[in-house]
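Illustration 12: DENN domain containing 1A.
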Amino acid sequence: MSVHLSVHSYFTVPDTRELPSIPENRNLTEYFVAVDVNNMLHLYASMLHERRILIICSKLSTLTACVHGSAAMLYPMFWQHVYIPVLPPHLLDYCCAPMPYLIGIHLSLMEKVRNMALDDVVILNVDTNTLETPFDDLQSLPNDVISALKNRLKKVSTTTGDGVARAFLKAQAAFFGSYRNALKIEPEEPITFCEEAFVSHYRSGAMRQFLQNATQLQLFKQFIDGRLDLLNSGEGFSDVFEEEINMGEYAGSDKLYHQWLSTVRKGSGAILNTVKTKANPAMKTVYKFAKDHAKMGIKEVKNRLKQKDIAENGCAPTMEEQLPKTAPSPLVEAKDPKLREDRRPITVHFGQMS
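Figure caption equivalent — predicted structure in token form:
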């Protein structure tokens, strides 16, 4: 008599209503470990301006993680243009495309890329933690929002959980949370969005200028279209972005906002539930992460990543082996010596492909 046993493999689909956390989310973890706060902010600003962006790395798994991890910081918006986590060698001509793109390239191909006619391209080298940009995108963003984001990222730099993702979420809410005040509601008419009301909601000249430009971005247009479709279809929406708006000071208290609440209350209970979401559901996810990593700090996560890579490759490559042979153009890099030394052992393990 024989007994046949079958083992079924399964995996749990990530909850899209929760923010990615460290160390559970591999993409975010590797991105935050490899790239310092200053360069993360510059890359974030470049994405908000929909630039042509290249991310370079000598290890494919880290390359894809950094591409996915950086794009995830735009939530609740999504990159709407060319998106290639790893560009095959025979498609290098894509780097010369005139439209915005977010492309990952293996370090071995970078010499060929630099021989191309690359104009106005932002380049992040993950191995050396350096960023090249011809733009002042970060300086063009409202300083109060960026300063708050930078401080939050520094505070969570030694902790696990969703602190990094939530810091960017708060920045997105500060930039775009007032979109609800620009919703136009007319009896028996579909809800529409008024760009002029959205921009004029703020007194700050810097914020107005940023929002004026933002209304022309594809990622913002797609976000607004998606929200309007859900509102007008009666489906409603509920996500951590709306919860963050309700908990913060972004919603405002003007007549348009209260008119929206009143109209929704009369129209659809489903939508009302999303608008009036309490803070409790969001607070439940703030410190949620796996039990076996609950007390693990970022340093331990970094050490484990380094040890894993050394075990795979036999040895850790030196910084000299990773530095590009040609001197890069103007760089934005870590200026704090202490921060650079803290990051250096982590970037070392992103070495040659096995």
